[in-house]
Amino acid sequence: MMAYSARTTISKLFNRRRFSLTPRPGSPHFSTSAAVASEPPPPPAAEVLNGPRILGMVKEYEDYRRNLYGGLTHKALLVDAVGTLVVPSQPMAQIYRQIGEKYGVEYSEGEILNRYRWAYGQPWGRSRLRYVDDGRPFWQFIVSSSTGCSDSQYFEELYNYYTTEKAWHLCDPDAEKVFKALRKAGVKVAVVSNFDTRLRPLLRALKCDHWFDAVAVSAEVEAEKPNPMIFLKACEFLGVEPEDVVHVGDDRRNDVWGARDAGCDAWLWGSDVKSFKEVAQRIGVQV
Length: 287
Known about the structure:
alpha/beta
């Protein structure tokens, strides 16, 4: 009964969230009926819980799941790519300017960054998805808007650079060890990312593609986070039910809210969990 109470209360807490119609800079925009829903009223005074009480209920809920699944809280782990699994090795504006100098790009890094943010925030009218197939039309718009340069050779050099291991590095140096331990323990692992078709070659370049049982790329499944469909597709690829899955990502709207709308559990990278070792420990796997 206590575990059920904890599970019910935590579920209610998780579902009290705010939606914004304006995406944060760098985040794709996806409209859902939930996004236009009015904000729920504040909880009654009796339901207001302090931090220690919430943490205690979370632990109680995780203990309940471990008892349910033979020592594990979840049967599968979904991982966001950019910002969680990998990060750019150099600031975007720096690379745009460095490569662009020989093509006549004169904007400063600050100007490029501001123009990039403006361009990324514009409605992408050609498709409901930004990343379709290789994403070239979208990225051509972003690059030319950010730098004022429409040279096709410049675009191709910049576009191809972001498929190489020079452009990215792993967030967590212990990632390989952790994912191997998770899979050995029977936990299935997949990447879920708003990305174009360069993601698979990138994972191969970083020599981490074999760490995962599946990869759900928005350009391939035709759904971008926070659309629940991309999470449901990942669950389908792994052969698991959403309620048996936890997703980890660095974007509260795209990763946490999106995953929970799909029926998955979700932990915010950098807040709920700060390393993949911590992720594994919370699932119940020692590394």
